[in-house]
Write a structure and sequence with these properties.
The structure holds 2 protein chains of 2 kinds. Chain A is α+β, with helices and mostly antiparallel strands. Chain A folds into 2 domains: 232 residues, P-loop containing nucleotide triphosphate hydrolases (Rossmann fold, 3-Layer(aba) Sandwich); 109 residues, OB fold (Dihydrolipoamide Acetyltransferase, E2P). Chain A is built from 9 helices and 20 strands. In chain A, the strands form 4 sheets. Chain A has a 6-stranded mixed beta sheet, with helices on both faces. In chain A, strands 13-12-11-14-20 form a 5-stranded antiparallel beta sheet. In chain A, α4 packs across α5. Chain A is elongated. In chain B, 34% of the residues are buried. In chain B, α5 crosses α15, α9 packs antiparallel against α12 and α10 crosses α11. The N terminus and C terminus of chain B are likely disordered. Chain B contains 15 helices and no strands. Chain B has 2 domains: 52 residues, no CATH class; 208 residues, MetI-like fold. Classes of the chains: A alpha+beta, B mainly alpha. At the A-B interface, β6 and α3 of A face α10 and α11 of B.
């Protein structure tokens, strides 16, 4: 059952259209991550769902109820803010119970529910403290506590981990995953960090310039990007792109990449078409210089321990190519290598960035 | 070794600037304190002592008769009551209106709100004398002359610009996400104001309470214009009224002046810790 439906949702600020007719269905209990570069509209889309911003056009439906013009508090959604947005003058317990107190829930019930939520998030010992006496991770937990206590239908997270340091981010990421498993709640999570997106999401929504570029499971986006934007955005280090043209000879098809050619099996492509070949760093195989599709010179080597990144200069592309290798391989800077690009792992895009 | 360093010639060179600065500060402090000291000295002397030795003589004994006379005078009680009846509602009303307007300007801006804000603030730059005659005519036509109402209304109105300015600027420092978090939790705009924005703005409120209370309490002009009978006079006008018909009762006036300044002092001391915080607000984070 769909828990949240966005139908042709648009938003304009003055003359600028920041959200362009977005359609999306989120099922009950699903963890959906909105990801995209800054300014792509992901936070705006979240604020439209909360009702903090009014839609210009379109419809928002939560559990079969049209909430498009309902007040934020009537939508039964809860949001965790990037800045935590804890009330500095209230204790942790008062922060968590704030919404219940406004709803005039009996005092004893508030105390009991705050305790329950605090034990779930392991902040029981902090209930009497003020937010300024808490660490970043504790504040984040309290903010999550405030959002779960009212048992909303949809949880919204607006870059909740971006103020935390790298180590704590990993811990909180796992906590959020655990929370999602425990609550079985519908969660929508905004981030610009694609690692967070890949690790947390059931489905990822890639946004760019107010439009949905692609929706899919993390691996689906990684392996079958619908366009060059998604291909380049998902995956770290990013996919390599090499410009080329389609050629035919002896009824076989080739892609000409600078001085090199590689055979491709794309009968529907017209000769002369300008294309871009995309290939992930781990799919490029290193061979002897004379055996490769391309020849390359090693410019920089990054040793990361578990793997090494080679940045290679080729005649096929202005940009350096990135190749992921075994760290035990003895390759030196300046060395000449051959590169093999397996056609099955290559993605072909036309000049507009669409998959061909 | 240590002593050698301490007695290096460069560190012993005479620097005249601190001396000059401190001398100037001392002279200024003396000038500012002189009237207060004069008032204190005159309040603890008999009229005869003042007549014989002048205001500035140090009295040979402490005479508290002036204070007894002032505190026992039913007219003085009336002055105090009248001043409170003006100061408390006008302070409360101007701050309340400033809070409401400041919140809207800071958190709920609308088309043209900045212009309205500027117009409102520009009210601070009108000298009261300019609006004195029209206001007198206005309240006269309402039949409110020789009541406390015009003074309450005028002080409330005159306080709105500064209250709005200060509260708007303070509310602007309250993060928007706090307001949005409260709204998502089910708060309406008034609850955001009373449960989130105001509790965070206690320093600003303390500053305003002190400023407004002091200004209104110490005001001389408006009560002088709008009240005529002795039963409606406020304390500052009352001090002047206390002078005798043929001679000036320096001692009694001095004593009343001191008693009259006590409430503002108490208000300041009460709000002091917030006041200092408020004056430096926004200067540093935290």
């Amino acid at each position: 059952m769909a828990n949240l439906i966005l139908k042709n949702v648009s938003k304009t600020f003055g003359e600028t259209e920041v959200i362009k007719a977005v359609n999306l269905e989120v099922s009950n209990g699903e963890f959906v991550v909105f990801v995209g570069p800054s300014g792509c509209g992901k936070s705006t889309l979240l604020r439209l769902i909360t009702g903090l911003e009014e839609v210009t056009d379109g419809q928002i439906i939560i559990e079969d109820k049209d909430v498009t013009h309902l007040k934020p508090s009537k939508r039964e959604v809860a949001m965790v803010f990037q800045s935590y947005a804890l009330f500095p003058h209230l204790t942790v317990a008062e922060n968590i119970g704030f919404g219940l107190k406004l709803a005039k829930v009996p005092k004893a019930e508030i105390v009991a529910r705050v305790k329950e939520v605090a034990s779930v998030l392991r902040v029981e010992s902090l209930l009497a403290r003020k937010p300024r006496q808490l660490s970043g991770g504790q504040r984040q937990r309290v903010a999550i506590g405030r959002s779960i206590i009212r048992q909303p239908k949809v949880f919204l997270f607006d870059e909740p981990l971006s103020n935390l340091d790298a180590a704590l981010r990993v811990v909180m990421r796992i906590e959020i995953t655990r929370l999602h498993q425990n609550l079985q709640a519908t969660m929508i999570y905004v981030t610009h960090d694609q690692t967070e997106a890949m690790t947390l999401a059931d489905r990822i929504v890639v946004l760019n310039e107010g439009r949905i570029e692609q929706v899919g499971a993390p691996l689906e986006l990684y392996e079958k990007p619908a366009n060059k934007f998604v291909a380049g955005f998902i995956g770290s280090p990013a996919m390599n792109f090499i410009k080329g043209t389609v050629e035919t000879a002896d009824e076989r098809m080739f892609a000409r990449l600078g001085p090199h050619v590689m055979e491709i099996n794309k009968p529907d492509l017209k000769p002369g078409l300008a294309i871009e070949v995309g290939i992930r760093p781990e799919h490029i195989a290193i061979v002897a210089p004379e055996e490769g599709t391309l020849t390359a010179e090693v410019e920089i080597i990054e040793k990361l321990g578990v793997e090494s990144m080679l940045y290679l200069k080729t005649e096929a592309s202005q940009d350096l190519l990135t190749v992921r290798t075994d760290p035990r391989q003895t390759i030196r800077t300046g060395e000449r290598l051959g590169l093999k690009l397996p056609v099955s792992e290559c993605h072909f895009f036309d000049q507009k960035g669409n998959l061909v | 070794m240590v002593e050698q360093v301490a007695t290096l010639p460069s560190s012993r060179e005479f620097n005249p600037w601190p001396v000059v600065v401190f001398t100037c500060l001392l002279v200024l402090a003396g000038l500012f304190l002189a009237p207060t000291i004069g008032v204190i000295l005159s309040s603890i002397k008999t009229t005869r002592e003042i007549a014989e030795g002048g205001l500035w003589n140090i009295p040979t004994r402490l005479f508290l008769g002036n204070f007894v006379e002032v505190l026992a005078n039913p007219a003085v009680h009336r002055y105090f009551l009248n001043t409170l009846l003006v100061t408390l509602p006008a302070t409360a009303a101007s701050i309340a209106l400033g809070v409401l307007a400041g919140y809207v300007f800071a958190k709920l801006p609308f088309w043209g709100s900045n212009l309205i804000f500027l117009v409102l603030i520009s009210g601070m730059f009108f000298p009261p004398q300019v609006i004195l005659i029209p206001l007198f005519q206005f309240f006269n036509s309402l039949g409110l002359i020789d009541t406390l109402w015009p003074i309450i209304f005028i002080h409330t109105a005159l306080g709105i610009p500064i209250c709005t300015l200060l509260m708007r600027n303070f509310f602007a420092t309250v993060p928007n996400s706090l307001r949005e978090a409260a709204i998502l939790e089910g708060a309406n705009e008034f609850q955001v104001l009373t449960r989130v924005a105001l509790p965070l703005s206690l320093p600003a409120l303390a500053v305003l309470a002190t400023l407004q209370f002091t200004w209104i309490w110490n005001d001389f002009l408006w009560p002088l214009i709008f009240t005529q009978s002795d039963e409606k006079r406020t304390i500052m006008v009352g001090i002047v009224n206390l002078k005798g018909q043929y001679s000036v009762a320096w001692g009694v006036q001095g004593a009343l002046s001191l008693v009259a300044s006590l409430p503002t002092l108490i208000v300041f001391l009460f709000f002091q810790r917030y006041f200092i915080k408020g004056m430096t607000m926004g200067a540093v984070k935290g």
